[in-house]
Every structure is written in C-alpha cells, then in structure tokens.
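Protein in question reproduced for absentees:

***
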Amino acid sequence: MALKKKQTTQQIESKIFEDYIQAQIVFKNINNSEDLRVDALEFLISEQSINHMLKLTNMLFGENKIEDHIYIDIIFNSFHGKNKTDKDYDELLKTLQSTNVYLRNMAIKYLQESNEEAIFFIEKLLKNDDKDIRIFALNILGDVKYDKSVDILRYFLVLEKDINVIMTAVDYIGEIGSIDDIALLESLKLEHKDNQYLIFGVDLAIDKIKG
C-alpha cells in the first residue's frame, strides 16, 4: 500500500494541474510537500481574481502558523500589477480584521504599497459605522502619507463626531499638516470648548505644526 501511495504522489507532482478544483484540493492538503502546494497555489493564482484568492486566504489562514507564511507572501505578491475592484477591497477588509496577525500585517503592507489605488478604499473605511474601523483607516492614511492624505484628513475632521476618532485625525494633522491647518484645529477647540482632552490634543498638534 505504501508503494501505491508513493506512486500516486509522484504522478501528481509530475503533471500540470488540469483544473482549478484539482489544484485547490492539492493546495488545501497540508500533508502535501511545500513545493507541491506552491505549484498548486501558483496555478490557482493564474486562474483566479484577487477577490477569490483573498477569500481562500481568509478561509485557510485564520491562525498564525509560521509554515503558512510562504503561501501568504506568494498570494499578496501576486496582487501587484493586477487591476483592483471594489469586491477586492471589501474582502481585504475581512483580512484586515483577521485573528492572524501576520495576515493582517501583510494586508496593511499591501495597502501601503498600493499607493493612490488604495485611497478610495480608505475613504470607504472612513465612512464605516464602526469607529474602530475609522480609526484604523486613519492610521493607514497617516502612516502611509499618500499625497492626498492631508486633504482627506481635513475633510474628515469637519464631518466626524466621535471624540476618539477626531483625536486620532488631529494627531496625524499635527504630524503631516501645515500652518494652513491651524485655523481648522482652532475651530475644533471652539466646537468642543468643554472637552479638555480634545483641547490639549489640538494644542499639542498646533505646537508640532509650528515646530
């Protein structure tokens, strides 16, 4: 029986995958060799969209296992140069909320490297009802420092009502804003004149801008 199993493995390794289903079965089988699973993954990538590969990634890699990192790296590296759609970014949001810290970090890195292509996705996150997601979007916006980051932060500050979210935006304005933003920050102090926490944060941001 052992000999037959060995022959079956050799047959799989020596042939090109005939279709997506066969490649997916081989890739999902963690008992297959790393080389064989990489071959199957590369076939899947050649056949499927970013959205589909993200769904597969979210389904298979909920836990942070070191042996899975190579497959996650290959998947995300394959996205560069491909056209992105709204569905891709909707699925990416699920990746950003994964319990797998390595997977989350790869998704953040992907957004950072996507440059201006990621702007419309971040703008969608800034409209999310969940304040934690809005803060998360601000962190990406401020850390990556896209060309449009400051303009988006300015517009966002006018609309946002949650104090914690506002303070996150204020912090980033202090880091990447200019003298022109001081008037906007001063107006926040007037609007929230009874909130000493906000006033202190705004004054700190203004001091940073003034240098």
